[in-house]
UniProtKB/TrEMBL annotation, chains A, B:
The gene is dhaT_5. Keywords: Oxidoreductase. Its EC number is 1.1.1.202. This is 1,3-propanediol dehydrogenase. It is an enzyme of class 1 (oxidoreductase). The lineage of its organism: Bacteria, Pseudomonadati, Thermodesulfobacteriota, Desulfovibrionia, Desulfovibrionales. It comes from the Bacteria. Residues 188-380 form the Fe-containing alcohol dehydrogenase-like C-terminal domain. Pfam families: ADH_Fe_C, Fe-ADH. Residues 10-176 form the Alcohol dehydrogenase iron-type/glycerol dehydrogenase GldA domain. GO terms for molecular function: 1,3-propanediol dehydrogenase activity; alcohol dehydrogenase (NAD+) activity; metal ion binding. Belongs to the iron-containing alcohol dehydrogenase family.
Amino acid sequence: MLITKFAIPEVIFGNGSIKYLAPCARRLGAKRVLLVSDPGVERAGWVEVVMDLLRKDSIECVYFNEVSSNPRDVQVHKGAELYVENGADVIVGIGGGSPIDAAKGISTIVGNGGRIRDYEGANKIMRPLPPMIFIPSTAGSGSDVSQFCIITDVERQVKMSIISRSLVPNLSIIDPMILMTKSRELIAASAVDALAHAVESYVSRMASPFTEPQSMQAIQLFMENVREAVDSKSPEALKNLSIASTAAGMAFSNAGLGIAHSLAHSIGGRFDVLHGMVHPVLLPSVMRFNLMSRPKKLARVGFQITGVQCRSEEKQAMKGIEYLEQLFLDLGATCRLNDILPDDSELELLCHKALPDACTLTNPREATCKDLMSICEAAW
Amino acid sequence: MLITKFAIPEVIFGNGSIKYLAPCARRLGAKRVLLVSDPGVERAGWVEVVMDLLRKDSIECVYFNEVSSNPRDVQVHKGAELYVENGADVIVGIGGGSPIDAAKGISTIVGNGGRIRDYEGANKIMRPLPPMIFIPSTAGSGSDVSQFCIITDVERQVKMSIISRSLVPNLSIIDPMILMTKSRELIAASAVDALAHAVESYVSRMASPFTEPQSMQAIQLFMENVREAVDSKSPEALKNLSIASTAAGMAFSNAGLGIAHSLAHSIGGRFDVLHGMVHPVLLPSVMRFNLMSRPKKLARVGFQITGVQCRSEEKQAMKGIEYLEQLFLDLGATCRLNDILPDDSELELLCHKALPDACTLTNPREATCKDLMSICEAAW
């Protein structure tokens, strides 16, 4: 670590914290907010809750819900038009990673103009964005605290990683009660995404003493709570998964990720697979690939996962990886790549597209296209 | 924990990170900054470094150095006048806790008017402050990342605790190289202040899963590095103490402190004692007093300090407290209250003044004036 940066939004966390939305929005100057969400969150009733809270405080609300899972450039541009046409002044996003990433994309265009693909990569956003408040409805993406925004370029069929300090919102309001209305499958897939953030950020080239404790806390809370959260939706376990997701978000936002995410973006851009579905497939193979570059750290991860201490670092790390594979099966996740992709005819193209993703740069072990192919074949 | 808030500034950390000052100030709109420091930092050459960096980037610089250890209300008001007279637009503070707290006080008056005593207590600052960038020159106060500001009310001879989200600066630039120019005594006193922040925030009533890992990391890094940092000023050990101080600052800023700090403020307000000198005297007695309210947590602190596991939580906690007492002696600290105060004639008055301090509210065990007296007598 030479020089490291650490930036996170202000966080309000806890059951019922959603009630702080309106005063917080007013503090940021809100008179008319653009509210971004999606039909799923709408059906669960949370969009109405948010609208009521805002209106009771005399804040007008323009609503945009044309956001798909793996949000698209065209949706971002449409939302930005709506913001400008209506003279909105603050953006509020409620939902999983998709509506929040869409809201970030909209904010980027509103503040900087152009098309969203102009900002692909790291540090391309030069002008300030309108104030943003996010309310996550899943415990996984970490987008509500991170400087990452993932948008699908429909024409090129790629998920673009857009990374900028400016994408950290002003405020994240994390109310674990919202998770209660989610399906078991979505809770599991989101939690595994948070775990992947924690593991990849912990071994990342940019990991620092500011991010490492957050990664480790996230792994610990995931291990202690994921089964109970998925089995019984216990409020305590869901709250702890929310903390895990937030901690992992703070970590990866500042430390970056690795090739499990590069590949997940590439696959998600082409086949529109739910992001959290890809990690049970890829993460173990990627951890095996990275083991020679970060034996000590992956051994520590292994210990955090299993509680078992071995004489060799390699063995301890491997025990953790194997434990995870079993856990993913127990959670009902799809664990082989051939269950996600229609066939293996595009594997090489997918790896080729994953290579230039910004997440590849921070992977602890340098990876070629051939390496990515081997990882995919091991996970096939 | 019902609902918890967590807010920290953006942090740039590392040897040489001071070079980012000018571009960061410009990003905040700086054309003419008010630079706040003190004669000690000036003598070490850092004020000149900062002025050069700003001027090379065409940012004008108005300089204010009338800041004493335990900064005073009159100094704050004078600095605020200078800011307004010169039409400054950003405040930069470089130094230990004193210049940074003075800069926060100045910022408060510039943004809100009135006198600094109007803002004593929690959440009294209503209007926005000018942008602030802080560069800490000691590893201890944590003021560069915290929402706390401690100013002495000269008339009443009290150190006022002013606590507000608005006092979190925009940016903290932490360059551990600056610590190299500090004396061994100051390094030790500052490090013990950081430790006191870590311990008091860990057992605070407002501690949360967002602050607890930071407190524990700070205790661990303090224990691993303080002797080497004080003995040899090793750059690696100083860097690690900087990380400890920053982590402890993030923790106490959001979790609050306890009665060791209430008493330290009361004593410092009356006798102008260096803040870091008071903790070796008071912290062990306060930890003993709090033991019955937080046995599990103080046992964990004990384990982090000594590495020794005992069957009883109380014993494990006590071992940690005793270890600390020996460590403070080894570091050359004054460890009895009668070495700091001229006599015991004002003890009751000091305890009486400590009671309404904002830090008393978050102490894990409720304390009466009589309790504070007992703590002082135990430390006499």
